[in-house]
Amino acid sequence: VSGLKMIKDDFFPDHYYPFFGPLKWTYYLNVFFVFINIILLILVSKKLKNKDLRSFSIFFCTSILFVFINGVLSGYQIFPLFLSSFGSVLSTLIIFMAYFNMHSKRIQLMNRDLRDQKDFLHKVMDLNPSYIYVKNHELKFVLINKAMSALYGKEVHELIGKIDSDFNNQPDQIKKIRDEELRILAGETEKWAEPELAIDSAGNTR
Fold first, then answer.
1. Is the pLDDT of residue 151 over 80?
2. What is the DSSP string of 134-156?
3. Is 178 exposed, middle or buried (0-12, 13-18, 19+ CB in 10 A)?
4. Share of the chain above pLDDT 70, in %
């Protein structure tokens, strides 16, 4: 660059452009090699095996190509020079969108894996003839197997979010269960390991 010249325009504000000296050909050579380099990066990105990384890399290289082309067009005075700064802004947005897209896909895959694990857990629980359940700190059922639901003569979904007294008409049994679970929550005792007797909805002792 050997100097600057003022560009006056009716539409855009006045601005300066650089003009080159006898080594101007090095600028063209640089433009050519940078363009080839970006194209090669895009081609290499398409070869990546990981789908998310491939998508992100292509987005990233494409944004670089956009900024580069925008800068070249500004350098040739096709665009005003100050407009080249908008390329960086748009490039940042493109990269952010690509990253967000990749991250959201990973979250979807993780959620799908968790759903699969949950479904598998439910199947294992339902195959177990023992009464298996999980309660929250309000003593409401949040997870229950089919054997436990059969004890109350209800479907699994009918017990979720409910407490024992909603279905069990044995007050002594309800009090025993509640007192024990409150002690467990308070850390005063552990859940009994010995078999316990329970009366089902038909009045049978199990």
1. yes
2. EE-TT--EEEE-HHHHHHTTS-H
3. middle
4. 88
* Rg of the chain taking only CA atoms, in angstroms: 35
**Residue-level pLDDT at 58:** 83
- Is 82 a residue whose pLDDT tops 70? no
The residues, ordered by sequence, that sit 6+ positions from 62 with a Cβ below 8 Å of its Cβ are 42, 94
pLDDT surpasses 70 at 88: no
Helix boundaries (H) for the chain: 24-45, 51-75, 85-127, 146-151, 156-159, 171-185
Residue entry with tokens 């009716």:
10
CA angle 190, 161, 118 (to 5 degrees): 75
pLDDT at 54 > cutoff 80: yes
| Residues in a beta bridge with 133 | 144
Task: Supply the pLDDT for residue 131.
Answer: 86
Closest CA to 143 of 175, 107, 118: 118
Q: Which tokens in the block code for residue 86?
A: 């908008």
b/e burial code for range 71-109 (CB count within 10 A of at least 16 → b): bbbbbeeebbbeebeebeeebeebbeebeeebeeeeeee
